[in-house]
Amino acid sequence: MQKFLIEGGIPLKGQVQISGAKNAAIKMVAASLLTSDEVVLENIPRIDDVGVIVEIVENLGVKTEFLDEHTLGLRADEVFSSEVPHSLGVKSRSSVITIGPLLARFGEVTIPEPGGCRIGLRPIDRHLMVLEKLGAVVSHKGGVYKISVPRLKGAEINFDKNTVMGTENAILASVLAEGETVITNAAEEPEVDDLIVLLVKMGARIKRDESESRRIVVEGVRELAGARHRILPDRNEAVTFAVAAAATRGDVTLTDVRPLDLTAFLAKLEKMGVGFDIQKQTLRVWLEEGTALEPVDVESVPHPGFMTDWIQPFCILLAQANGVSLAHETIFENRFSFVDELLKAGAKIEVLTPSEAGIAFDPGRYGFEWLEGDREPKVLARVHGPTSLFGSRLAIPDLRAGATLILAALAAEGQSETSGVEHIDRGYENFDEKLRNLGAKIERAELE
Ligand code: EPU
Q1: What does the pLDDT look like over 54-73, one tens digit per residue?
Q2: 193 and 256 housed in the same domain
Q3: What's the number of domains the chain is made of?
Q4: pTM score > 0.70 for this model?
Q5: 205-208 and 227-230 strand pairing
Q6: Which domain range does residue 384 map to?
């Protein structure tokens, strides 16, 4: 186990290359199960969550080879198992994305209840609904799902609430199904569309409705072929570095980004008074010494809105604004567990239920399931700024919260120690090295 030692208060300056998107790479590795030909993925991020999904497909019989540091070849021509090993399935929630392709190609899958970040309950009922609609039979015993079907049959699938991986599983399962599948209220995150681009290159027939973007039609085909694809850049990593630049009053140019995918984030930066400039695929973000940041309210919603993964890092900027801001998380019920840690570093943040914040609680507004009788969730952070953060000992509870605590340590005066580095390594490629290249003082050390 490792920790980071961080000496804060240094404005970050320079250029950083954004890696390929974790949340696209994982699904594309799983998509390779759909064909016996080779699928080549470029711009693969070298992170632990990708390592886990690669290990899962290898355990099923997929041959994998890194053709260079960021190019992965996968060939599923001799798959001998459709059982996701327990030890790997519980490591990451993303293991659930193998269900669609395994069922589509082999008609059966055995998978343990998935694990993942502790940001909420995160059930998989929406995935199971999809599979049952497509004709699969699901049994659940002793923490293990067994799902089977002779051949999936196209169906009409409607999601009551947005689900990114649920939509992706619906697409992955239906590309080889018999007939047409129509998915309504489908997620429209850029990572979903990048997966569609790869699948279409493989020969799938998938169309997102031009006039109704949350409607996707999949025409099942008999088989798919290999393809080569460059994975889109990671929006979450981009936001993390953009916040790092502003929160340390630095000046950082992010290369290999798709600024259009960051529109909702950039709109909030603008309101706060953070400087930025877009040139094709680069984004420069800076904050001049002496600039007073304006407080803003943010609410996470599905794409094209402000993304749930940005809510936590954004709190570090809000803590430096001149006044009170409200951050409202509507996708997961437990995004603010890291705030207790942030308080240790001098932040002044109250975590509230909607009623406590004076907002009528409407369960329909939230992405997670809420049952009558459950307590109102603490989904709001009222952030009082400006605060001077100071160095402290911080324990990282999950991936985005971890990045947030590191941002806090970088913005703080003095030395901080953050334990729980393994959460960062799950989702950020060479995070500490990239920060060091921008002038940050951050070192890894073994936990005593
Ligand atoms: N949900 C259910 N039942 C389901 C599926 C989802 O109740 O069957 C709930 C979830 O618990 C959550 C909400 O619905 O409250 C939305 O979940 P969604 O299915 O959209 O999330 P996901 O697909 O599991 C992906 C990303 C997350 C990102 C969300 C944004 C991957 C591997 N993960 O999760 O990324 O925050 O979409 O909706 O693609 C991360 O990168 O750290 C991360 C958590």
Answers
A1: 999 999 999 999 999 999 99
A2: no
A3: 2
A4: yes
A5: unpaired
A6: 2-19+233-446
Query: Do residues 232 and 194 make contact, with C-beta atoms less than 8 angstroms apart?
Result: yes
249 CA from centroid of ligand 1 (Å): 32
CATH code, 95: 3.65.10.10
User: Rounded CA gap, 333 and 335, in Å?
Assistant: 6
In this structure, are 109 and 147 located in the same domain?
yes
State the Cα–Cα distance between residues 448 and 439, nearest whole angstrom.
27
Same-domain check for residues 10 and 55: no
Residues with active-site annotation:
117
Q: Which of 266, 271, 397, 276 is nearest to 340 (CA)?
A: 397
The yes-or-no verdict on residue 429 having pLDDT over 60 is yes
Assess contact for 338 and 315: CB atoms under 8 A: no
Same domain? 126 vs 271: no
pLDDT of residue 118: 59
Residues 439, 380: one domain? yes
Q: What is the chain's length?
A: 448
CA of 297 relative to ligand 1 center, distance in Å: 23
For ligand 1, atom 19, which residue shows the shortest CA distance? Answer: 163
**Is the CB of 163 inside a 6 Å radius of any atom of ligand 1?**
yes
Tell me the pLDDT tens digit for each residue of 104-124: 999 999 999 886 555 556 689
CA-nearest residue for atom 11, ligand 1, is: 122
- The percent of residues in the chain predicted with pLDDT above 70, rounded, is 98
Mutate to test the pocket of ligand 1, among 22, 96, 122 (most ligand atoms within 8 A of CB): 122
Expressed in angstroms and rounded, the spacing between residue 120 Cα and the centre of ligand 1 is 9
Is residue 165 classed exposed, middle or buried when 0-12, 13-18 and 19+ CB atoms within 10 A define those classes?
A: buried
Assess whether the C-beta atom of 40 lies below 6 angstroms from ligand 1: no
